[in-house]
Write a structure and sequence with these properties.
CATH class of the largest domain: Alpha Beta
Strand order of the largest sheet: 11-10-16-7-8-15-12-13
Low-confidence stretches: none
Helix content: 25-40%
Strand content: 25-35%
CATH architecture of the largest domain: 3-Layer(aba) Sandwich
Mean pLDDT: 80
Radius of gyration: 28 Å
Structural class: alpha+beta
C-alpha cells in the first residue's frame, strides 16, 4: 500500500487534462508508439470529435520513483465542462490527491475554482500544475499570482509542464509520488469497496469500477451489494491498463474492475458499497451527493413501434451516466416517451447523440424547460417541469421560478458586454471584484431558464472566448410566468409548448413561429402557425400553399373560363385543409430549440 497512489486530474475546459494523461501513459510505457493515439483514454467517438472528455476513465500506471522503488499510480481522468461535474465528484471520492491544472495563457478560470472547492470538500491533497508553458502567450508569473490570490495555494509548489511538448512530465509524476499520501485502509478488515463507475460489456455483462478502501477481493468471492442486497459471484478482478488486465486480487487502496455476472444494468447503483456476503462490513461508505437535474426535456421515438427499444436503450445508458434521470411520459402529438432530467444543455446534447449513435435510436426531443413551482389558491404547492402539466391560470396564486448564482471570470475589458448580457437575461449583478490586475469576477443572480438555452455560447462570443462561467442553484422566486402554446391550423402541438416570463412571451412565440415557417414543408393548402397564451393569439406566421397553374392550357377567350377553374381549385384546397394533416419533421423541433437571436 505504501507504493500506491490514487490521484485525479481536474481543470477548466481545454486546459489540457487529456493531453497530460496521454503523456503520463507514455512516460509509464503502457503503450508502444505504434498503438498510441491522442486522447487515448477518451474511448467514445463523440469525445474525439468534440475534443472534450465526457466520461471519467481510470488507468493504472507502473512507475519507478526517484528512489528506485516501483510505484503503481492510479490515475482518473475527468471531464472539465460544468455539465459533467458529477463525473468529477465521483472520481474525487476514489482519490487521495488531485493535479489542479491551470493554463499558462488563460490563467485561473471559473471551473478551476469550482474543482478546487470540490477537491477541498473531499479533503484531498491539491498539487497546482501550470500547463502549456510553451505557448507564446504563456505568463507563468501572472498565473503564479492568480494561484496565490484566487486559489489560496502556495505558488512555489506549482509544477511547470507542457503536456503537448512533453516537458516537465517527470516533475509531475515526482510530485504525485512525493506529495500525494498513500491510501489508508486495513487489508485484513471486511471488504468495503466504493462503486464509482460501471459500463456494459456485451460479452461479460456489467463491468463495475471500484475503489477498495478495506479488505481484499478475489475471483470466486461472493460479492454483496449493500443498497440492493443482491449477491453475485465474482468471475474476474483486475486493473485498468488502457484495456482490462486481470489480476489475482484487489486489496485495500487499489482501483480496479470487477466482473461478477451482473446481468441487468439496474442491479448496480453508482455510489453503492460492495462487501463480501460471508464477511459483511458494518456500515457502507458515504456515497455521492444525489445529483439534481436542472434541465428537463421529453424524448420520443420517431416511430411509436420503437418505444420498447428506446426503453431498453435508456436503461443501458443510465448505468453509464448516473446523472440522467427519466420517467415514462406521453404526448397527444408524439405518443409514448420519457421525461428526462439533465445537468445542462451540453449534457442533453450528448445524451441525444449517444442514444442515436451507440444505441441506434431515432428520437425526437421537446423544448428544454426547468422545474417551476406554483402556489395554488387552495393552499397547495406543486412543482412541474413539463409545460403539459401547467395548472389552470384561474387557480394560480403565485408562480415561482428557480434562480442561480452565476460566477463569470473574464478580462476586465469585457465588463460592459457581460453586464449587458446578464441584464438582458433578467439578471441582477450582486457582486464584482478584481481577483488580480486586469481580471474581473462578476456575480449575477439570474433565472435558470435564461441560461438554459444559449447563455454559455453568447458569453463566449461577447468575451472572444476568454470568459468562463460556473453556477450554483440558489432558490425559487416569484415571477409572472405564462404558458405559450403553438397551434398549427388551430391544432395544439403539445411538444412545442413552453413556460416563459410574460414579458418574453411575444418575442419567443414570434421566433418559434418564424422558425417553424422556415422548417415545415409546404402543403397544397395554407398553414397558419400561431403562438397563443390560453385563448389569446400573440403571434402568427403563415406558410402559403403550393399552387398548381390550372389555367396553363386556358389561353385566350373569356376571363370567366379562368375564374371558373380557379374557383374550382379554391374549393378543392378548402376541402383538403379540412382533412389535411401536418407532419412536423424532427428538424423543425430542433430548429425551435435553437436560440432566438441566431
Amino acid at each position: 500500500m505504501l507504493n500506491l497512489r490514487n490521484f485525479s486530474i481536474v481543470a477548466h475546459i481545454d486546459h489540457g487534462k487529456s493531453t497530460l494523461a496521454d503523456r503520463l501513459i507514455q512516460e509509464a510505457g503502457l503503450v508502444d508508439e505504434r498503438q498510441f493515439h491522442d486522447q487515448i483514454l477518451d474511448s467514445m467517438d463523440l469525445e474525439r470529435e468534440r475534443g472534450i472528455t465526457i466520461k471519467s476513465s481510470a488507468v493504472s500506471l507502473p512507475f519507478t520513483g526517484p528512489d528506485g522503488q516501483g510505484y503503481r499510480l492510479n490515475l482518473i481522468d475527468t471531464p472539465g465542462h460544468v455539465d459533467f461535474s458529477y463525473e468529477v465528484s465521483r472520481a474525487l471520492a476514489s482519490c487521495e490527491g488531485v493535479l489542479l491544472l491551470v493554463d499558462a495563457a488563460q490563467g485561473v478560470e471559473a471551473q478551476t475554482m469550482a474543482n478546487l472547492y470540490a477537491a477541498m470538500e473531499h479533503g484531498l491533497v491539491i498539487i497546482p500544475v501550470i500547463n502549456k508553458i510553451d505557448l507564446p502567450a504563456a505568463n507563468v508569473d501572472l498565473v503564479r499570482e492568480q494561484i496565490e490570490n484566487d486559489l489560496g495555494l502556495d505558488p512555489d509548489e506549482a509544477v511547470l509542464c507542457s503536456a503537448k511538448q512533453g516537458l516537465g512530465i517527470g516533475d509531475v509524476l515526482g510530485a504525485v509520488i512525493g506529495r500525494v499520501p498513500p491510501p489508508s485502509g486495513d487489508p485484513a478488515a471486511p471488504l468495503r469497496a466504493l462503486i464509482f463507475d460501471a459500463f456494459y460489456d456485451p460479452f461479460r455483462g456489467t463491468v463495475v469500477a471500484v475503489r477498495v478502501f478495506d479488505g481484499a477481493l478475489r475471483a470466486g468471492d461472493q460479492l454483496f451489494l449493500m443498497s440492493s442486497s443482491a449477491t453475485h459471484k465474482v468471475e474476474e478482478v483486475g486493473l485498468f491498463r488502457i484495456g482490462r488486465e486481470p489480476a489475482g486480487e484487489l486489496s485495500a487502496g487499489m482501483v480496479g474492475y470487477v466482473i461478477a455476472g451482473i446481468k441487468t444494468l439496474s442491479d448496480v447503483s453508482i455510489g453503492d458499497t460492495a462487501t463480501l456476503a460471508d464477511n459483511q462490513a458494518a456500515a457502507p461508505l458515504s456515497g455521492f451527493k444525489k445529483v439534481k437535474p436542472v434541465v428537463f426535456s421529453s424524448i420520443y421515438p420517431v416511430s411509436s413501434d420503437d418505444y420498447e427499444s428506446l426503453s431498453e436503450a435508456l436503461e443501458k445508458y443510465k448505468l453509464n451516466d448516473a446523472a440522467l434521470v427519466y420517467q415514462r411520459d406521453s404526448s397527444a402529438a408524439l405518443g409514448l416517451g420519457f421525461r428526462c432530467g439533465f445537468l445542462g444543455l451540453l449534457h442533453l446534447d450528448i445524451v441525444q447523440e449517444r442514444l442515436e449513435r451507440e444505441f441506434d435510436q431515432s428520437i425526437i426531443m421537446t423544448s428544454p424547460s426547468v422545474r417551476y413551482r406554483f402556489r395554488l389558491k387552495d393552499g397547495q404547492e406543486i412543482e412541474i417541469d413539463n409545460p403539459q402539466d401547467y395548472p389552470d391560470p384561474a387557480f394560480i396564486e403565485e408562480a415561482l421560478e428557480p434562480y442561480i448564482k452565476a460566477s463569470i471570470i473574464s478580462p476586465d475589458r469585457y465588463i460592459g458586454a457581460i453586464m449587458k448580457l446578464g441584464l438582458d437575461r433578467r439578471g441582477t449583478s450582486s457582486n464584482m471584484h478584481y481577483p488580480s490586475p486586469g481580471r474581473v469576477e462578476i456575480t449575477f443572480e439570474i433565472p435558470l431558464s435564461e441560461i438554459v438555452y444559449d447563455f454559455y455560447d453568447k458569453l463566449k462570443s461577447v468575451t472572444q472566448g476568454y470568459g468562463s462561467f460556473d453556477y450554483e442553484l440558489l432558490d425559487y422566486r416569484p415571477n409572472r410566468l405564462v404558458k405559450v402554446d403553438i397551434l398549427l391550423n388551430g391544432e395544439k402541438v403539445d411538444a412545442l409548448s413552453v413556460i416563459v416570463h410574460k414579458d418574453r412571451a411575444r418575442p419567443r412565440a414570434l421566433a418559434m413561429c418564424d422558425r417553424l415557417r422556415d422548417e415545415l414543408p409546404r402543403q397544397q393548402f395554407k398553414i397558419a402557425i400561431q403562438g397563443a397564451i390560453g385563448g389569446e393569439i400573440i403571434a402568427r406566421s403563415t406558410i402559403s400553399a403550393f399552387r398548381k397553374d390550372v389555367t396553363a392550357k386556358c389561353y385566350g377567350g373569356d376571363i370567366t373560363r379562368k375564374r371558373k377553374l380557379l374557383e374550382k381549385q379554391k374549393k378543392g384546397k378548402k376541402r383538403m385543409k379540412m382533412v389535411g394533416k401536418i407532419e412536423v419533421p424532427q428538424s423543425a423541433f430542433i430548429a425551435v430549440l435553437k436560440s432566438d437571436e441566431d
